[in-house]
């Protein structure tokens, strides 16, 4: 017996039985009986004289026919014509082999298989039904396997709303075992009433719902028997993880949008490139700068060499280069790693041309500001005098705050020392201390230092960030510049915290301040720098301190000139008792000049008196000649010194011309020449 496979992916087997094929005119009943017995046929097919199938008979029907005519007479029947009267006509012919059980009509008792003109076998109804049952069992098993293996929960209800099916995933998600769920009303198993709604309106729908802290989604469809609604089925999933991922994805999307906005609004060029230098993402600023890079062969080589270096070293790299029309750029290459391998590189390009120009201007400003003195502490703060000890205690308190301080006192009484002492005792110690002396400077020089160029004052403050700006002898600053300085200080104080520069102001004056008259002081500037006041006493009241300071001067001169210097007691008393115009400044200057010009080791009172008298005679000369120079150069030098001396008096060009007995235009021309010479020297 042959097994025939049918059914495609869901194939099953059908038993194909051999069959006897006989013609009515060629075969006798005796031969048919013998053939059936030898071949054990169950069926036989009868053909007419034209070879057409008349019908079929079974072995049982053959025996019955033989019984009716009598077994003793079987050999006498030469023809099968009598048998044709009892042939079964319920057969179906298949040319080839059936591909599906559905191809075989169910009201047929025998299926005859034919290849071309040859009959190769038959399939009876019993074999067909057995194969149908087997196929249905297989399909049921297949369905149950899928039903149980589906990771989504599946639950079905009948028309009354009672649970008829639930798969293992449904048990796990609902927390109810199958034994307890079957037959129970749906809402006793799961809270949502979605399946009941399907039973009411016969419409499928999708619903996302939350039970406690978990999120679920359910797909619900009606079940019909023909046109009659008989139940509903729901497929549901726990999507809590998906919801979390979705939320995280939304966050990522927002971050991507923010990053794109940052890239778009950034003043710097930003791009993401792969390890070969191909641009994956970029903003407009990068695109504009990149066009200049690719048009410069040298810069392009440096660009791609740096990318290769970053890939190889896995380190951030920086360099600066000039591209396009003199644009100075700072390049930064930062690797992005995936599994410890450089996959992408973030390239940032910043136009630093303005910064470099500002740095150059700052450098030039530092070179030209001869008035700026960086603090170098050499002489300790001496305060043996009772009044100076009180000032020392006051400085300790002043140093703890950052308010402006005004120091009052005569020139050369140690005002700069007090300013530096305030810094040393504050948390600004170690930062930059800049001293700007307004005495002896022309209007043009002071204006250039403080308010000359746009943003000059701001650049000055940024240079001293965190330190102290000490404006010495502020009362020598012309009134117009005082007003301008007051405006700048007020403007800086009104800046927001992010733009304000952290600098403390200390100022000093040597004369009595008045807000009226020809030597009026700016009232606004006075109150801006006068949050706290310290007054240095005159030298005549602190003789003990002066002696110690003079001895310190001598010690410094020994170190500076590497020679022995002995100051006698009478010389020390003479220095202390003498009235010096500029106090300590004149004392220090006198001692140093004496040491330089006199070879003596011992410095006595007699020598000091002789030196000072000789010096006084020299000072009374209108012009002092120190060396021989060309006459033309000497005239120019004298003119320059005269004009600079008059400039310190802050008078107009017309008054200068009147004093020097020349035209005002001559003064203007010579002032401009002096300014040009100063720039060249700088």
From TrEMBL:
<feature type="domain" description="PAS">
    <location>
        <begin position="139"/>
        <end position="193"/>
    </location>
</feature>
<dbReference type="InterPro" id="IPR013767">
    <property type="entry name" value="PAS_fold"/>
</dbReference>
<dbReference type="GO" id="GO:0003677">
    <property type="term" value="F:DNA binding"/>
</dbReference>
<keyword id="KW-0067">ATP-binding</keyword>
<protein>
    <submittedName>
        <fullName>PAS domain S-box protein</fullName>
    </submittedName>
</protein>
<dbReference type="InterPro" id="IPR002078">
    <property type="entry name" value="Sigma_54_int"/>
</dbReference>
<dbReference type="GO" id="GO:0005524">
    <property type="term" value="F:ATP binding"/>
</dbReference>
<feature type="domain" description="Sigma-54 factor interaction">
    <location>
        <begin position="381"/>
        <end position="596"/>
    </location>
</feature>
<dbReference type="Pfam" id="PF00989">
    <property type="entry name" value="PAS"/>
</dbReference>
<dbReference type="GO" id="GO:0006355">
    <property type="term" value="P:regulation of DNA-templated transcription"/>
</dbReference>
<dbReference type="Pfam" id="PF00158">
    <property type="entry name" value="Sigma54_activat"/>
</dbReference>
<dbReference type="InterPro" id="IPR030828">
    <property type="entry name" value="HTH_TyrR"/>
</dbReference>
<dbReference type="InterPro" id="IPR000014">
    <property type="entry name" value="PAS"/>
</dbReference>
<dbReference type="InterPro" id="IPR058031">
    <property type="entry name" value="AAA_lid_NorR"/>
</dbReference>
<dbReference type="InterPro" id="IPR027417">
    <property type="entry name" value="P-loop_NTPase"/>
</dbReference>
<dbReference type="Pfam" id="PF18024">
    <property type="entry name" value="HTH_50"/>
</dbReference>
<dbReference type="Pfam" id="PF25601">
    <property type="entry name" value="AAA_lid_14"/>
</dbReference>
<dbReference type="InterPro" id="IPR035965">
    <property type="entry name" value="PAS-like_dom_sf"/>
</dbReference>
<keyword id="KW-0547">Nucleotide-binding</keyword>
């Amino acid at each position: 017996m042959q097994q025939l496979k049918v059914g495609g992916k869901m194939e099953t087997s059908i038993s194909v039985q051999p069959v006897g094929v006989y013609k009515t005119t060629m075969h006798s009943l005796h031969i048919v009986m013998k053939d059936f017995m030898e071949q054990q046929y169950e069926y036989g097919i009868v053909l007419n004289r034209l070879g057409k199938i008349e019908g079929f008979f079974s072995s049982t029907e053959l025996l019955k026919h033989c019984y009716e005519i009598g077994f003793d007479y079987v050999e006498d029947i030469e023809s099968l014509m009598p048998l044709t009267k009892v042939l079964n006509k319920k057969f179906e012919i298949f040319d080839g082999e059936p591909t599906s059980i559905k191809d075989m009509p169910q009201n047929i008792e025998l299926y005859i298989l034919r290849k071309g003109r040859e009959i190769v076998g038959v399939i009876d109804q019993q074999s067909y039904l057995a194969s149908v049952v087997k196929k249905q069992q297989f399909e049921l098993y297949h369905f149950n396997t899928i039903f149980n293996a589906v990771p989504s929960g599946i639950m079905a209800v009948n028309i009354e709303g009672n649970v008829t099916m639930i798969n293992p995933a449904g048990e796990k998600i609902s927390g109810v075992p199958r034994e307890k769920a079957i037959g129970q009303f749906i809402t006793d198993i799961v809270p949502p009433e979605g399946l009941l709604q399907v039973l009411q309106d016969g419409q499928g729908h999708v619903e996302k719902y939350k039970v406690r802290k978990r999120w679920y989604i359910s797909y619900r469809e009606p079940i019909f028997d023909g046109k009659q609604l008989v139940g509903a089925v729901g497929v549901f999933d726990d999507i809590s993880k998906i919801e979390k991922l979705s939320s995280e994805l939304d966050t990522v999307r927002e971050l991507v949008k923010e990053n794109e906005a940052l890239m778009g609004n950034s003043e710097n060029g930003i791009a993401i490139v792969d390890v070969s230098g191909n641009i994956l993402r970029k903003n407009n600023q990068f695109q504009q700068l990149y066009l200049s890079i690719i048009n410069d062969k040298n810069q392009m080589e440096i660009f791609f060499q740096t990318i290769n270096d970053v890939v190889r070293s896995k380190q951030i790299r920086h360099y600066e280069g000039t591209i396009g029309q003199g644009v100075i750029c700072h390049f930064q290459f930062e690797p992005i790693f995936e599994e410890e391998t450089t996959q992408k590189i973030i390239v940032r390009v910043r136009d630093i041309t303005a910064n470099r120009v500002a740095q150059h201007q700052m450098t030039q400003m530092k070179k030209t500001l001869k008035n700026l003195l960086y603090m170098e502490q050499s002489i300790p703060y001496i305060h043996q005098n009772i009044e100076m000890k009180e000032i020392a205690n006051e400085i300790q308190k002043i140093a703890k705050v950052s308010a402006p301080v005004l120091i009052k006192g005569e020139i050369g009484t140690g005002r700069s020392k007090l300013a530096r002492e305030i810094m040393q005792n504050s948390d600004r110690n170690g930062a930059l201390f800049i001293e700007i002396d307004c005495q002896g400077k022309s209007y043009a020089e002071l204006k250039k230092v403080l308010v000359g160029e746009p943003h000059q004052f701001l650049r000055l403050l940024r240079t001293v960030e965190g330190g102290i700006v000490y404006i010495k002898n502020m009362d020598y600053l012309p009134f117009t510049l005082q007003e301008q300085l007051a405006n700048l200080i007020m403007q800086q104080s009104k800046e927001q915290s992010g733009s304000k520069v952290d600098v403390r102001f200390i100022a000093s004056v040597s004369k009595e301040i008045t807000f009226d008259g020809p030597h009026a002081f700016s009232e606004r500037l006075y109150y801006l720098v006068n949050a706290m006041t310290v007054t240095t006493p005159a030298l005549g009241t602190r003789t003990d301190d002066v002696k110690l300071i003079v001895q310190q001067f001598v010690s410094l001169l020994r170190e500076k000139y590497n020679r022995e210097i002995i100051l006698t007691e009478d010389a020390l008393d003479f220095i202390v008792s003498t009235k010096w115009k500029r106090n300590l400044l004149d004392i220090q200057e006198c001692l140093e000049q004496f040491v330089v010009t006199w070879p003596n080791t011992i410095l006595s009172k007699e020598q000091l008196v002789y030196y000072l008298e000789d010096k006084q005679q020299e000072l009374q000369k209108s012009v002092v000649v120190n060396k021989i120079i060309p006459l033309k150069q000497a005239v120019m030098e004298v003119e320059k010194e005269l004009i600079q001396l008059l400039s310190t008096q802050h008078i107009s060009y017309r008054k200068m011309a009147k004093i020097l007995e020349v035209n005002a235009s001559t003064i203007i021309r010579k002032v401009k020449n002096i300014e040009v010479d100063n720039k060249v020297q700088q």
